[in-house]
Specification:
CATH superfamily of the largest domain: Dihydropteroate synthase-like
Number of strands: 15
Strand order of the largest sheet: 8-7-6-5-4-3-10-9
Largest sheet: 8 strands, parallel
Number of helices: 12
Helix content: 40-55%
Number of domains: 2
Structural class: alpha/beta
Order of helices and strands: EEEHEHEHEHEHHEHEHEHEHEHEEEH
CATH topology of the largest domain: TIM Barrel
Radius of gyration: 23 Å
Length: 363
């Protein structure tokens, strides 16, 4: 089974971008699209933050970003890093000294908005420390915090304004002979986000970090991210992604991998296909699907698993599934590749399927 592998597909001609590393994770130049998230714990609370990062790692998160609001948080970064595996990015605003402290504490990368870090002289000091330690900096352009002159020029945070802001920051870094950078341009407006990345994609070859900021709750936020990130990835634009949700960050990682799976770019964990249900469904399909999903957590290989609510049509409709169940009237069948292999009472169906999937993947 394919696990965490980038698929070569003529439908996804990747934008050519230079290679950088965040810790040991490669970004750009054809590397797999990396999945990121951000902790929502208080970084100063080391044990809570470490616990959340380990949960993110278990979910497949490859790069973790942490807010560094003060020197105490910067100092805590050193202790946190000693207890986790994922590369850590320090998120800095307004104070260049925090960026330097985070670098010295062992950050694997920085995310800064050059417009609010304190001017060119302060930025030069940050770049000097990053260069000496070989760590990258993400230039983060946000529609809500564009430079005043650019906002005055365009009147609104348009895609053109965002792209111009990014180019201005990029030139500043290049003037300081620092090229170990990646770029993000985020807006809560999905179409503006897409257009901004498209505008910039042909002008520079730095890796792009994709996301839709302030996207919202689980459903609305997932939809916005799936459309924004998904459309860009389908066009070959994007080297690393974060699905921003007002939710447990583990859910961000799950959603990110589903976006990548839907585009046939990466696969992690079983793919569960199931009926939307209708008036013909005569089993408690919702409960069965939830039980199966929980029972298969932790599996990183990616068999296709079907949970169907119709014994008559289920196996045929899910013929491409590796293994599945279909039920009705208090009982159901186990099938493999569309062929029925055995019959079971409804209360056993979920556990029979979980057992068969684990046998299939060697778990």
């Amino acid at each position: 089974m394919e696990t965490n592998e980038q698929k070569n597909d003529s439908r996804h001609q990747r934008r050519k971008s230079r290679r950088i590393f965040v810790g040991d994770i490669p970004l750009g130049d054809g590397a797999p699209v990396a999945v990121q998230s951000m902790t929502n714990t208080d970084t100063r609370d080391v044990s809570s933050t470490v616990g959340q990062i380990k949960q993110l790692e278990d979910a497949g998160c490859e790069i973790v970003r942490l807010a560094i609001p003060d020197e105490i948080a910067a100092d805590a970064l050193h202790k946190i890093k000693a207890e986790v595996k994922a590369p850590l990015i320090a998120d800095i605003h307004f104070d260049y000294r925090l960026a330097i402290s985070a670098i010295k504490a062992g950050a694997d990368g920085l995310r800064i908005n050059p417009g609010n870090i304190g001017g060119r002289d302060k930025l030069e000091k940050v770049i000097k420390e990053a260069r000496e330690r070989g760590i990258p900096i993400r230039i983060g352009v946000n529609a809500g915090s564009l430079q005043k002159d650019i906002l005055d020029k365009y009147g609104h945070p348009t895609p053109e304004a965002m792209a111009e802001s990014a180019l201005e920051h990029i030139r500043l870094f290049e003037d300081m002979d620092f090229n170990n950078i990646k770029i993000s341009m985020k807006s809560s407006n999905v179409l503006n986000t897409i257009s901004a990345y498209e505008l910039l994609s042909g002008k520079v070859d730095y890796p792009f970090h994709l996301g839709v900021t302030e996207a919202g709750t689980l459903i609305s936020g997932t939809v916005k991210n799936a459309i924004g990130i998904g459309m860009l990835l389908y066009k070959g634009i994007g080297d690393t992604i974060r699905v921003s949700l007002s939710r447990d960050p583990v859910e961000e990682v799950k959603a990110a991998y589903e976006i990548l799976r839907a585009l046939d770019l990466r696969r992690r964990g079983p793919e569960i296909i199931s009926c939307p249900t209708c008036g013909r469904c005569e089993i408690d399909l919702f409960h069965i699907v939830e039980t199966v999903e929980k029972g298969l957590q932790g599996i990183t290989s990616s068999p296709k698993v079907a949970v169907m609510g119709c014994v008559v049509n289920g196996p045929g409709e899910a013929r491409e599934a590796d293994v599945g169940i279909a039920g009705g009237r208090g009982q159901g069948v186990l099938f493999k590749k569309g062929e029925v292999v055995d019959k079971f009472p409804e209360e056993e169906l979920a556990w029979v399927l979980i057992r068969e999937v684990k046998k299939l993947v060697g778990g």
